[in-house]
Amino acid sequence: MEDALRTLPDVKEIKAECSDGMATFTVEFLMTVPLENLEQHFDLLRRKVNDMAASLPQGCYTPVVIDDIMDVYGIFYAFTGDGYTYPELYKYAKMIRRELLTVKGVKRANIVGNRNEVVNITIPREYILRNGIIPTQIMSALNNARKTVNAGNYSIDGDRLRIGVSGVVKDEKDISDIIINTADGKQLRLGDIANIERSYAEPQRNGFFVEGKPALAICLAMEDDAIVPDVGKLVDEKLAEAMKRVPLGMETEKIFFQPDKVDEAINSFMINLVESVVIVILVLIFTMGLCSGVIIGFGLILTIALSFPILLVCGTTLQRISLGAFIVAMGMLVDNAIVIMDGILIDK
Asked: Which uninterrupted H or E stretch holds 204?
C-alpha cells in the first residue's frame, strides 16, 4: 500500500503506523499544491486506494480514506443520559446529527466516543476435547451464517423469479442457533456448547467523558463561507426541536461553541473601536483645538462607516486578518489627517 501511495503526484512524506488489526497511512502533500487542487489530489488518492483493495490479503477490510482533517469543528456538544447504554445514546445521537445536517451552513457532523458492541463466544476446553471441535470450524460456520443462499427460481408466465434465503445474523440468539458439524458427523447447536454474551470491545480504544460520566460528542464543522453567529443560532433552534424527540434524561451540553466566541470577539472589537475613536478625538481636541479635532474625528467616523458596506459588497467578512488590517488602516488615516491638518494650520 505504501509503495502504491508513493506514485501519487506532489507527495512530500508518507508515514505508516501498524497496530493490532489495523494499519494507518498518513499522506502529506507538498505545501506548493494550490488549495483549489487539493480535492483533485484526494480524488486520485481514493482511486489509488480502491485499486489496491483487490490485491490486499484475504480478511482485510476495504481501506477507508479520511480526507476531512482540514475541517475545523467549531461546534462541540456533549450528549449524555443517565441510565442509558451506549447503543441507546448512539441511536438518538444519529437522529440529532441527521437533523443538524439540514441546517444551512453546516458542512459536516460527526459522533465521537461511541463504544463498539461485540458478541463474545466462550467455549470451555472440555467441550472442545469432548466433541472434537476445531475453533476454525466455528469461525467457518459463523462466516457461512452471514451469506445469502441461492434457493432456486420460480417460473410463472415465462418470467423467472429468483429466490434467495437470507442468513443474516441479527443478535446473539441467532448465533446460539448456528449448527456446528463435528469431525465424526454429529451436529451440535453452538449455544449448547458455548457461552454467548453481548458486551463492549475490550480494551476500550476511544471514549468521551464529561465530569467522569460517559457521553457522546457531537461535532459540527461549518462551511467556509458561512456566517458563524447566524449558523450558531440556527443550530441552537434545530437542536432544541430535536431534543423534544429524545427520551427523558438525555441532555446536551455545550463544550465549545465557536459562534459565542465570534460574538465575543466582534463585540470586544466594536467596544474597542468606539473607545479608540473617542480617545483620538478627545486627544486631538486638547492638542490641536476643537475645530481640528472635530474635522479629523468626523473623517475617521465617516471612513469607518463606509468601510463596512464596502466589505459587504466585496464579499469579505470580519475575521482576524480583516480586523488587523482595519486597525492598521485607522492608524494610517489618523496619522495622515494630523499631518495635513498641521500643515493647514502652519500655512495660516
From this structure: none
Peptide bond into 203 cis (omega under 30): yes
- pLDDT by 10s per residue, the chain, length 348: 888 888 888 888 888 888 877 888 888 888 888 877 878 888 888 888 888 888 888 778 888 887 666 677 888 999 998 888 888 888 999 999 999 999 998 888 888 888 877 888 887 777 776 766 777 777 777 777 666 666 667 777 777 777 666 656 777 777 777 777 776 777 777 777 778 888 877 777 777 888 888 889 999 988 877 888 889 999 999 999 999 998 888 899 999 888 888 888 878 877 887 887 788 788 878 877 787 777 777 777 787 778 778 877 877 666 667 777 777 877 787 777 777 777 777 776
* Count of Cβ atoms closer than 10 Å to residue 218 Cβ: 24
* Cα dihedral across residues 165, 171, 177, 179: positive or negative: positive
The answer to whether residues 90 and 207 touch, using CB atoms and an 8 Å cutoff, is no
Sheet holding 73-81, edge to edge: 106-112, 216-222, 73-81, 250-257
Q: What are phi and psi of 252, to 5 degrees?
A: -120, 145
Q: What is the pTM of this model?
A: 0.64
3-state secondary structure (DSSP) of residue 188 = strand
Asked if 111 and 218 count as a contact pair (C-beta separation under 8 A), the reply is yes
Helices first, then strands: H and E counts in the chain: 11, 14
Q: How far apart are CA 80 and CA 207, in angstroms?
A: 13
